Amino acid sequence: MKNNIMIMKKQNKKPIGLTFLLIIIVIASCDRDRNQPGWDYFPDMFYSEAYESYTPNPNFIDGKTMREPVEGTISRDFIPFQYTIEEEDRTRAGKELINPFKNEPVALKSGKEAYTAFCQNCHGENGDGKGFLHTSGRYIAVPRTLAGETAQQLKDGEIYHSITLGYGSMGSHASQIRPDDRWKIITYIRMVLQENDKKEKTKAE
Question: Is the overall model pTM greater than 0.85, yes or no?
Fold first, then answer.
Protein backbone atom coordinates (compact mmCIF):
# COMPACT_ATOMS: atom_id res chain seq x y z
CA MET A 1 0.00 0.00 0.00
CA LYS A 2 2.83 2.38 0.95
CA ASN A 3 4.64 1.53 -2.28
CA ASN A 4 1.57 2.44 -4.31
CA ILE A 5 1.29 5.78 -2.53
CA MET A 6 4.96 6.54 -3.19
CA ILE A 7 4.55 5.70 -6.87
CA MET A 8 1.49 7.96 -7.16
CA LYS A 9 3.37 10.84 -5.50
CA LYS A 10 6.27 10.45 -7.92
CA GLN A 11 3.87 10.38 -10.87
CA ASN A 12 2.15 13.55 -9.63
CA LYS A 13 5.47 15.37 -9.32
CA LYS A 14 6.34 14.83 -12.99
CA PRO A 15 3.46 16.92 -14.46
CA ILE A 16 4.11 19.65 -11.89
CA GLY A 17 7.80 19.69 -12.69
CA LEU A 18 7.18 19.81 -16.45
CA THR A 19 4.63 22.59 -16.06
CA PHE A 20 7.03 24.64 -13.94
CA LEU A 21 9.83 24.11 -16.47
CA LEU A 22 7.53 25.16 -19.33
CA ILE A 23 6.58 28.36 -17.47
CA ILE A 24 10.24 29.24 -16.99
CA ILE A 25 10.96 28.67 -20.70
CA VAL A 26 8.01 30.84 -21.75
CA ILE A 27 9.01 33.67 -19.42
CA ALA A 28 12.61 33.49 -20.57
CA SER A 29 11.61 33.52 -24.22
CA CYS A 30 9.45 36.60 -23.68
CA ASP A 31 12.35 38.54 -22.18
CA ARG A 32 13.16 40.69 -25.18
CA ASP A 33 15.31 43.79 -25.51
CA ARG A 34 17.57 45.35 -28.12
CA ASN A 35 20.60 43.34 -27.05
CA GLN A 36 18.76 40.06 -26.64
CA PRO A 37 15.99 40.08 -29.29
CA GLY A 38 15.08 36.46 -28.74
CA TRP A 39 13.50 34.30 -31.42
CA ASP A 40 10.74 35.23 -33.88
CA TYR A 41 8.27 32.86 -35.41
CA PHE A 42 8.15 33.61 -39.16
CA PRO A 43 10.51 36.63 -38.98
CA ASP A 44 9.87 37.41 -42.65
CA MET A 45 6.27 38.21 -41.74
CA PHE A 46 7.14 39.95 -38.46
CA TYR A 47 9.65 42.29 -40.10
CA SER A 48 7.95 43.63 -43.22
CA GLU A 49 10.22 44.23 -46.18
CA ALA A 50 7.61 46.29 -47.98
CA TYR A 51 8.67 49.70 -49.28
CA GLU A 52 6.81 52.81 -48.20
CA SER A 53 4.90 54.63 -50.95
CA TYR A 54 7.31 57.54 -51.40
CA THR A 55 10.60 55.80 -50.61
CA PRO A 56 13.24 54.83 -53.23
CA ASN A 57 12.88 51.35 -54.63
CA PRO A 58 15.79 49.59 -56.38
CA ASN A 59 13.44 47.01 -57.92
CA PHE A 60 12.21 49.44 -60.59
CA ILE A 61 14.10 51.26 -63.32
CA ASP A 62 12.84 54.69 -62.25
CA GLY A 63 13.66 53.93 -58.59
CA LYS A 64 10.15 54.78 -57.38
CA THR A 65 7.92 52.67 -55.16
CA MET A 66 4.69 54.44 -56.11
CA ARG A 67 3.69 53.15 -59.54
CA GLU A 68 1.69 55.00 -62.16
CA PRO A 69 -1.65 53.39 -63.11
CA VAL A 70 -1.85 51.50 -66.39
CA GLU A 71 -2.73 53.82 -69.27
CA GLY A 72 -6.49 54.09 -69.59
CA THR A 73 -7.16 53.17 -65.96
CA ILE A 74 -10.34 54.70 -64.55
CA SER A 75 -10.77 55.30 -60.83
CA ARG A 76 -13.54 53.38 -59.09
CA ASP A 77 -16.90 55.19 -59.14
CA PHE A 78 -15.52 57.66 -61.70
CA ILE A 79 -17.23 57.85 -65.07
CA PRO A 80 -15.41 59.89 -67.75
CA PHE A 81 -17.43 62.82 -69.07
CA GLN A 82 -16.93 63.07 -72.81
CA TYR A 83 -17.92 66.71 -73.14
CA THR A 84 -16.14 70.06 -72.82
CA ILE A 85 -17.46 73.19 -71.16
CA GLU A 86 -18.16 74.82 -74.54
CA GLU A 87 -21.75 75.74 -75.39
CA GLU A 88 -21.73 73.43 -78.42
CA ASP A 89 -20.94 70.47 -76.19
CA ARG A 90 -23.64 71.51 -73.73
CA THR A 91 -26.16 71.41 -76.56
CA ARG A 92 -24.79 68.06 -77.73
CA ALA A 93 -25.06 66.67 -74.20
CA GLY A 94 -28.70 67.71 -74.20
CA LYS A 95 -29.32 65.63 -77.30
CA GLU A 96 -27.27 62.58 -76.34
CA LEU A 97 -27.62 62.12 -72.59
CA ILE A 98 -30.70 60.35 -71.25
CA ASN A 99 -31.90 60.63 -67.65
CA PRO A 100 -32.17 57.05 -66.31
CA PHE A 101 -34.50 58.28 -63.53
CA LYS A 102 -36.82 60.35 -65.70
CA ASN A 103 -40.36 60.47 -64.25
CA GLU A 104 -39.35 57.93 -61.58
CA PRO A 105 -41.05 58.79 -58.24
CA VAL A 106 -38.57 56.50 -56.47
CA ALA A 107 -35.82 59.02 -57.24
CA LEU A 108 -37.60 61.98 -55.65
CA LYS A 109 -36.48 61.38 -52.06
CA SER A 110 -32.80 61.11 -52.94
CA GLY A 111 -33.18 63.93 -55.45
CA LYS A 112 -34.65 66.25 -52.85
CA GLU A 113 -31.93 65.39 -50.33
CA ALA A 114 -29.18 66.09 -52.85
CA TYR A 115 -30.90 69.29 -54.05
CA THR A 116 -31.24 70.53 -50.47
CA ALA A 117 -27.58 69.82 -49.74
CA PHE A 118 -26.00 71.18 -52.91
CA CYS A 119 -28.45 73.45 -54.76
CA GLN A 120 -30.89 75.05 -52.38
CA ASN A 121 -28.51 77.62 -50.88
CA CYS A 122 -28.21 79.31 -54.28
CA HIS A 123 -31.30 78.34 -56.27
CA GLY A 124 -33.76 78.45 -53.40
CA GLU A 125 -36.11 75.93 -51.84
CA ASN A 126 -38.59 76.42 -54.67
CA GLY A 127 -36.00 76.66 -57.43
CA ASP A 128 -36.81 80.35 -57.96
CA GLY A 129 -33.25 81.60 -57.54
CA LYS A 130 -33.98 83.06 -54.10
CA GLY A 131 -31.53 81.02 -52.10
CA PHE A 132 -30.06 82.13 -48.78
CA LEU A 133 -26.67 83.04 -50.24
CA HIS A 134 -28.33 85.62 -52.50
CA THR A 135 -31.11 86.90 -50.23
CA SER A 136 -28.63 87.37 -47.38
CA GLY A 137 -26.46 89.55 -49.60
CA ARG A 138 -23.47 87.23 -49.42
CA TYR A 139 -23.69 86.39 -53.12
CA ILE A 140 -24.39 89.38 -55.37
CA ALA A 141 -25.15 87.57 -58.64
CA VAL A 142 -28.74 86.39 -59.01
CA PRO A 143 -28.81 82.57 -59.35
CA ARG A 144 -30.75 81.17 -62.28
CA THR A 145 -34.27 79.95 -61.68
CA LEU A 146 -34.71 76.21 -62.11
CA ALA A 147 -38.48 76.26 -62.02
CA GLY A 148 -39.39 78.86 -64.65
CA GLU A 149 -40.13 78.46 -68.34
CA THR A 150 -36.51 78.90 -69.42
CA ALA A 151 -35.38 75.95 -67.30
CA GLN A 152 -38.40 73.91 -68.35
CA GLN A 153 -37.30 74.19 -71.97
CA LEU A 154 -33.82 72.87 -71.20
CA LYS A 155 -33.11 69.22 -71.89
CA ASP A 156 -32.09 66.95 -69.03
CA GLY A 157 -28.66 66.45 -70.57
CA GLU A 158 -28.05 70.21 -70.65
CA ILE A 159 -28.79 70.53 -66.94
CA TYR A 160 -26.61 67.50 -66.23
CA HIS A 161 -23.82 69.14 -68.24
CA SER A 162 -24.17 72.32 -66.18
CA ILE A 163 -24.01 70.45 -62.88
CA THR A 164 -20.99 68.47 -64.04
CA LEU A 165 -18.86 71.19 -65.62
CA GLY A 166 -20.50 74.35 -64.31
CA TYR A 167 -22.33 77.09 -66.21
CA GLY A 168 -21.92 80.85 -66.04
CA SER A 169 -20.95 81.85 -62.51
CA MET A 170 -21.74 78.37 -61.16
CA GLY A 171 -18.72 76.13 -60.75
CA SER A 172 -18.44 72.41 -61.40
CA HIS A 173 -20.11 70.10 -58.88
CA ALA A 174 -18.70 66.88 -60.34
CA SER A 175 -16.47 66.25 -57.33
CA GLN A 176 -19.35 66.79 -54.90
CA ILE A 177 -22.37 65.14 -56.50
CA ARG A 178 -22.31 61.57 -57.78
CA PRO A 179 -23.58 60.98 -61.34
CA ASP A 180 -26.76 59.17 -60.23
CA ASP A 181 -27.55 61.94 -57.74
CA ARG A 182 -27.18 64.56 -60.49
CA TRP A 183 -29.88 62.78 -62.48
CA LYS A 184 -32.06 62.44 -59.39
CA ILE A 185 -31.74 66.16 -58.73
CA ILE A 186 -32.93 66.82 -62.28
CA THR A 187 -35.85 64.44 -61.76
CA TYR A 188 -36.77 66.31 -58.56
CA ILE A 189 -36.55 69.64 -60.36
CA ARG A 190 -38.78 68.39 -63.18
CA MET A 191 -41.40 66.53 -61.16
CA VAL A 192 -41.64 68.81 -58.13
CA LEU A 193 -40.20 72.30 -58.56
CA GLN A 194 -41.25 72.88 -62.16
CA GLU A 195 -44.65 71.27 -61.68
CA ASN A 196 -45.28 73.46 -58.64
CA ASP A 197 -44.30 76.52 -60.68
CA LYS A 198 -46.78 75.56 -63.40
CA LYS A 199 -49.55 75.13 -60.83
CA GLU A 200 -48.83 78.51 -59.25
CA LYS A 201 -48.98 80.25 -62.61
CA THR A 202 -52.21 78.45 -63.50
CA LYS A 203 -53.79 79.67 -60.25
CA ALA A 204 -52.61 83.23 -60.95
CA GLU A 205 -54.32 83.19 -64.33
Answer: no
* 99 within domain boundaries: yes
Residue 176 lies in a domain: yes
Q: What is the pLDDT of residues 68-92, one digit of tens each?
A: 888 888 777 677 899 999 999 999 9
The answer as to whether 6 is a domain residue is no
Residue type, 148: G
Dihedral angle computed from the Cα positions of residues 16, 18, 21 and 25, in that order, rounded to the nearest 10 degrees: -130
Distances 180 to 96, 142, 174 between C-alpha atoms, Å: 16, 27, 11
Return the CA Rg of the chain.
Answer: 35
Q: What is the CATH number of the domain that holds 119?
A: 1.10.760.10
- The answer to whether position 155 is within a domain reads yes
Spatial contact of 162 and 170, defined as CB atoms under 8 Å apart: yes
